[in-house]
Amino acid sequence: MRYARLILAPLTAIAVLVAAPTSIAADVGIGVKNFDFTPEGQTVGVGDTVTWTFNDEGHTTTSVPGQGEKWDSGVEDKGGKFTKTFSKPGKFQYVCTPHESFMKGTITVGSDTVKKTAGAVAAKVSGKTVTLSFKLNEAAKVSVKLSGAAKRTVKGKYLKAGKRTIVVKKLKSGSYKATLSFQDDFDKKSSAKRSFKVG
């Protein structure tokens, strides 16, 4: 019986080690050939590395501006390689800059775990200026449209998570409705509204 226990103890330890999940980051490949990224869409985990292999010359892998991850390989020669390790979850679009109208790709990193991008919006009016305050629960591109006494648009800005404000100046007197639009790194869209009056 004691002999059986001595054999089972190491076997049990080995079984536990085999069953334990590994946290080793992966290296995923994307080919660049014939004016295509192959595959065009790739899903990886946070901490994984993507390697682009350039089978043709004259191409880049360049992130689209206004996202949580940035990279630019520059124009590569045939046989060149470019690597990027992704540290943030999100859906990140990229292009080949010389052929950006049609040569595009997407890297999806991890999964979207934030249910609500932003909290409630507050509006503080001072003279002809309104300060719109809100809390972002995750990084997002934020834009504002005002309707009412006058129409105004604040183009989208990429903002990090935390307490944020957007200031709109030189407003006419009257009632307004502000619509804030949010687009997170997974391209999930949401909005929030707030009414206010300028005296």
Describe the structure.
By secondary structure, this protein is mainly β. It has 1 helix and 15 strands, in the order H-E-E-E-E-E-E-E-E-E-E-E-E-E-E-E. The protein folds into 2 domains: 26-109, Cupredoxins -  blue copper proteins (Immunoglobulin-like), CATH 2.60.40; 122-198, Immunoglobulins (Immunoglobulin-like). The strands form 4 sheets. The chain has a 4-stranded mixed sheet, with no helix packed on it. The longest helix has 18 residues, at 2-19. The N and C termini lie far apart (90 Å). Residues 1-22 have low confidence and may be disordered.
Question: Main attributes?
Answer:
199 residues; mainly beta; Immunoglobulin-like; 2 domains; four-stranded mixed beta sheet; 1 helix; 49% strand
In short:
This protein has 199 residues and is mostly beta strands.
Itemize the secondary structure elements and their pairings.
Blueprint: H1 2-19, E1 27-33, E2 36-38, E3 41-44, E4 49-54, E5 62-63, E6 81-85, E7 90-95, E8 104-109, E9 122-126, E10 129-136, E11 140-148, E12 152-159, E13 162-168, E14 174-184, E15 189-198
Parallel strand pairs: 1-4, 3-8
Antiparallel strand pairs: 1-2, 4-6, 5-7, 7-8, 9-10, 10-13, 11-12, 11-14, 14-15
